[in-house]
Amino acid sequence: MERSTSTNTSGTVLKLEKAEAPIPAQHHLPPPLGGHSFVAHLRSALTHDTFSARADDDGELVVIRVYALEYLRQDEDCRRMIEREALIGRIVDHPHIVQSYPPFMTRTDLFLVQKAYGGGELYEALESYSRSAAVGRGGASGEGPLGLPVTIVKRLARELAEALQYLHEKCGVAHRNIKLENIALDDENSVRLGGLGMCAVLPTSRATPAVRDGDAMNGTGADDSELHLCCGSKHYVAPEIVQGVGYDGASVDVWAAGVVLFALLTGSFPFDSETSEEEIFHRIKNADKFLEENPLFQSMDDPQAKDLLRNMLRGNAKARFSLSEVLEHPYLKNVK
């Protein structure tokens, strides 16, 4: 499985607390800033660097993403996405959503702070398990699914659905960027959903004034009957996004959660293709046909799993399950 990349979306303006000094050159550990002491440089991306750090007051381990303000001034989409993530992070409070802390900035850089989770990314956990399973078969990956154990998959899928239901019903927003890389695992290996930068107000929601005003200010559809911005990652986008038509944000989240469920069960994406991105999108637009023809789907021996996947991955968004239906489905209903 390959990692997925996402397109950007818009956000809203935040007031940020200022620290005292700018950070030094890239890849060097910054000095203590914003009540945190930096521990290690974790990774670099096109838009930012990521560090581990500890809070000076209680020693809690956190992850800090550092963005150059000069870059953000030049890339409005990235700036809005970061501001949206920080805004949503301030209001969410759910056991299966990443915990965010107040951002801060220096004269040159913006710092986004989140709790560190010991289980790492769900993507990495699935990749590691799939590799081990393939080795156990002598490298014969074609002999069947390379997903996680079913009992674990069911629990993770239910936790993800509960996190999305909270975002939809309590916060009034759709996530719009569900993917394995945006799901962390905590010390108990429970879901912690992150990647909130592409959230958008659901048109019929009761979003908090701060969130709704932010969406209206940036024209992302708070007063429309549908959302229109094309966003997400290629393996996870719903057919209506590929087709470039207006869409229901809650429904595209259900679709992407269905892709995650399929991946957890099989170690593969349901509409993947080795030929081209265009072929992936062709399969997504004809989802009902290609799901049934997928050998990994055909090999599933649990009819309840297949039924849930069919209904989460319906090509017709109006026929697709709601999150309530997902959580009430026999495959997940009594999962603890």
TrEMBL record:
<keyword id="KW-0547">Nucleotide-binding</keyword>
<keyword id="KW-0723">Serine/threonine-protein kinase</keyword>
<keyword id="KW-0418">Kinase</keyword>
<dbReference type="Pfam" id="PF00069">
    <property type="entry name" value="Pkinase"/>
</dbReference>
<dbReference type="InterPro" id="IPR011009">
    <property type="entry name" value="Kinase-like_dom_sf"/>
</dbReference>
<keyword id="KW-0067">ATP-binding</keyword>
<feature type="domain" description="Protein kinase">
    <location>
        <begin position="1"/>
        <end position="332"/>
    </location>
</feature>
<protein>
    <recommendedName>
        <fullName>non-specific serine/threonine protein kinase</fullName>
        <ecNumber>2.7.11.1</ecNumber>
    </recommendedName>
</protein>
<dbReference type="GO" id="GO:0005524">
    <property type="term" value="F:ATP binding"/>
</dbReference>
<dbReference type="InterPro" id="IPR000719">
    <property type="entry name" value="Prot_kinase_dom"/>
</dbReference>
<keyword id="KW-0808">Transferase</keyword>
<dbReference type="GO" id="GO:0004674">
    <property type="term" value="F:protein serine/threonine kinase activity"/>
</dbReference>
<dbReference type="GO" id="GO:0007165">
    <property type="term" value="P:signal transduction"/>
</dbReference>
